[in-house]
Amino acid sequence: MLKIKPIELIRKNEQIWKEKYNGKELTNDEIIIAMAENPKLIERPIVVKNGKAIIGRSREKVLNLLS
Known about the structure:
Blueprint: H1 15-20, H2 28-37, E1 46-49, E2 52-55, H3 59-66
Antiparallel strand pairs: 1-2
């Protein structure tokens, strides 16, 4: 629903990313597994409405989606 690559959903400043994954060539599946094992890596909030989704990083984006 977000229409982005898994790597675009990663919080790259998280310590666990820096220690375990940064600089490695990971497949999309490996990135998804890393997120499943370490949910802290996932950008949030993710806001969903009527089949559309966004990363709710600004109030304006969220209000636009919800209006």
